Amino acid sequence: xxxxxxxxxxxxxxxxxxxxxxxxxxxxxxxxxxxxxxxxxxxxxxxxxxxxxxxxxxxxxxxxxxxxxxxxxxxxxxxxxxxxxxxxxxxxxxxxxxxxxxxxxxxxxxxxxxxxxxxxxxxxxxxxxxxxxxxxxxxxxxxxxxxxxxxxxxxxxxxxxxxxxxxxxxxxxxxxxxxxxxxxxxxxxxxxxxxxxxxxxxxxxxxxxxxxxxxxxxxxxxxxxxxxxxxxxxxxxxxxxxxxxxxxxxxxxxxxxxxxxxxxxxxxxxxxxxxxxxxxxxxxxxxxxxxxxxxxxxxxxxxxxxxxxxxxxxxxxxxxxxxxxxxxxxxxxx
Length: 334
Ligand code: SF4
Ligand code: SF4
Description:
This protein has 13 helices and nine strands. By secondary structure, the chain is of the alpha/beta class. It folds into two domains: 6-180; 195-332, no CATH class. A hairpin with a 5-residue loop joins β7 (216-218) and β8 (224-226). The chain is globular. One iron/sulfur cluster binds at residues 194, 210-211, 213, 215, 232-233, 236-239, 289, 292.
């Protein structure tokens, strides 16, 4: 197999939506004919746990990557980083038509990634357009961008074949069989956990104080880490409302601001709070956390535990009134 400068990975939609499947198939068919790239298909990235062969396949990859997924780019980038699939964020020219150009997005002030290899990872959101040509043209532009650099390419099969799980991993390079379900890729289950955008995270530790479910920890560099991903409560986005930097993303949440859109950060702080009759996103987060505590058979704690320090002086009413909480839940139809 000839060395290519770039591998394109298609991350399948978690749903069987025919329009999404069709776009994936069109892209894979076109990319397989493209002599400048290798192409692979994996199940939905967010659902891959550390032991899945799809994760191991991605970890074994060297060289630049383009990752096409049904997620906002920063959600995809940082969940890959958390899984050890690291690289510098490649800049894409694809724009999300839903993002408001007039909204000023604050410059990131975060601690950034660590131990990044010398390669780029370009994450493209498949949700921005239904026309495969849009993505193919962007990939072609990226290939052009990379070929003007001195790129140390590697034979794809060389490093795959160096792996003890060779047979398991090679199947991802037969993209059509993965797409059609003919490949015996092990199934994935739906998962729910936060992803930290380290470009925005300032390591303030507000989230680890706020979450009472043991999701967060710190790594060897004393940096905040989503340590126990599967301890997170399905559907709960509470800590994303507490983070002062909008650095916590839930890629599958229906609110764009929670799912990783950067254009409407303010919405994150006010949306559901209206349903609860509360005045801030913090109040909403407190209510959401209490719901999960009660579901676990624990006591609600309201605003008495783990409140963000920046909220210490606020004068709003504490959200420890369970009647208000359940009124809010009724309104949400939970
Ligand atoms: S609250 Fe946000 S900025 Fe602070 S450590 Fe957590 S993710 Fe980082
Ligand atoms: S969403 Fe809730 S359970 Fe999950 S990490 Fe955040 S605070 Fe913890």
